[in-house]
Amino acid sequence: MFLYKxxxxxESTSAHLIILAETDEKAFSVVESHVARHYIKSPVITSAxxxxxxxxxxxxxxxxxQQ
Length: 67
Known about the structure:
The chain is α+β, with helices and mostly antiparallel strands. Helix content is 18%, strand content 42%. It contains 2 helices and 3 strands; from the N terminus they run ββααβ. It has helices at residues 24-29, 31-36; strands at residues 2-10, 14-21, 45-55. The chain has a 3-stranded antiparallel β-sheet. Strand 1 and strand 2 form a beta hairpin.
């Protein structure tokens, strides 16, 4: 399993998604469903890219500074 940090660009904003998945394909397959959970009307996703990928182990994580 891997911990993924995915950068998502939408029409008017951007976001990061941290997801646990077995493969890159499985990580990308859930991006839209996770974005849809946070909006009443799902935004149009213009791009999604893996920014970081780490093997899971105790203490694995990401620090995301406010921009």
